[in-house]
Design goal:
49% of the residues lie in helices and 10% in strands. The protein is of the alpha+beta class and 174 residues long. It folds into two domains: 2-73, no CATH class; 85-169, Glutaredoxin (3-Layer(aba) Sandwich). Helix 5 links the parallel strand 1 and strand 2 (124-129).
Length: 174
């Protein structure tokens, strides 16, 4: 498997591809294991670019169209580089009615990013979700695994600052 790793890659990229190759070897004989391999590959790379999808298809001896089909079907998978933190703003009915749209506009303005985009500094990826199961806390927003309740444009700057400050200090967010 390792002979399929491109030698023009950086040392880090070679290590990443070799790690994916080990995952493929672990799962290649197990039917229905493509999603497990894709999850692991995305964990290693942070996203699933086309070159990586082709590498997985070759390693698992399946058509690249099958890999692409699974990647495009499941919203968890991303084909674009993602930020260090993922902001998910709920736009379900309760959140929308209670001001979620204003928060969306504030996020776009504050970060200079459109929905589905990643900030230029690679800090945040911004997504809209239909429900995070916190309707009583509307409008609700998640940053990574942290849920924030009754988010307003005024509260937004303080929430985001927690992540940039923690990153500058090299610590984890609370």
């Amino acid at each position: 498997m390792n002979e399929k790793v491109n030698t023009d890659l950086s040392a880090q990229e070679r290590e990443q591809y070799e790690a994916v190759a080990r995952v493929i070897e672990q799962y290649r004989q197990k039917p229905g294991s493509l999603i497990m391999v894709l999850h692991a590959a995305q964990e290693i790379f942070g996203y699933l670019p086309m070159e990586l999808q082709q590498f997985i298809a070759d390693g698992m001896d399946i058509p690249v169209s099958e890999v692409c089909g699974v990647v495009s079907f499941y919203s968890f998978f991303s084909t674009q580089k993602r930020g260090k933190h993922t902001i998910r703003m709920c736009q379900g009915t309760a959140c929308y009615v209670r001001g979620g749209k204003k928060v969306v506009e504030a996020i776009k303005k504050e970060l200079g990013v459109e929905v589905g985009g990643t900030t230029a500094d690679g800090q945040f990826t911004f997504e809209i979700v239909r429900c995070i199961g916190s309707c009583g806390l509307a409008p609700a927003m998640m940053v990574d695994d942290d849920v924030y309740k009754q988010v307003t444009p005024t509260k937004l700057r303080g929430i985001l600052a927690q992540y940039t400050e923690q990153d500058e200090q090299g610590g984890e967010t609370a």
